[in-house]
Sequence to fold (291 residues):
Amino acid sequence: MGFNVVFQKADLLFIFFSFHFSLSFSHSQYADDESDQDSPISRFQRYLIIKTAHPDPDYASVVAFLRSQAQEIGLHMQVLEFGPGKPLLLVTWYGSNPSLPSVLLNSHMDSVPSEPSKWLHPPFSAVRTSDGKIFARGSQDDKCIAIQYLEAIRNLRNRDFIPVRTVHISYVPDEEIGGSDGATKFVQSKEFKELNVGFMMDEGQASPRDEFRVFYADKSPWSLIIKDKGTPCHGSRMYDNSAMENLMKSVEIISRFRESQFEIVKAGEAANSEVISVNSVFVNAGIPSPK
Ligand SMILES: [Zn+2]
Fold:
């Protein structure tokens, strides 16, 4: 998110802060060199070319692709829908003792927008360069995770491994825009309750090597909008109690708190994931002057 400032001759100001509270999870990236048409890498690339960026993620194509993969591996599938046009794909690998609490692996199908003009290769081209890098929006966040789940299960099944507990994978929509028609309704549903989940894993950070960090917590977002009112003014004079002055008091307090948290990270006393991150992301001031 960027920091957008619009200053006009103003009597009303809005400022939007995004807070992220402590904690995290993990994932990885392929280091495989296969280049044939049906390898983990090529399957990953086939997923990457599906246009999943907001505001118009192609969920139908994602579900069709992931279904075909799950079917190939011999997994059970179910498509749920908690909002119109917002499918949620639930894939299941039955364990030898399905009465035990299950394992749930989660991944979201949508991606944040991209600005194609700023990319070396088009964001949904999944171009793989000679040094092995693959370029695609959503490759790390979090299509690599979606594919890793399936590839891991494919490998284990090829070795005739059968888990004791049932393993589910949920592919959810709208994570990047809050998940109100996705994970939020899913976890409140009877379908979720019936899964009897005992352990769950979600996305985290990709790794350029074969070492993967597993995080056991995540940050919770809290969005805060501050609205400040003040005395309207004329450009030729100065008044006390302007909206901007009032707003600055709040900004200063929040900025000091932000600094105190960042200082802890800079001093090496805590990781970024262990402090409260605060970012001001949007400022809006009305009433616009006529052009
Ligand atoms: Zn993500």
Remarks:
- Residues 108, 141-142, 175, 203 surround zinc ion (CB under 6 Å).
- The longest helix spans residues 243-266.
- The first strand starts at residue 4 and ends at 5.
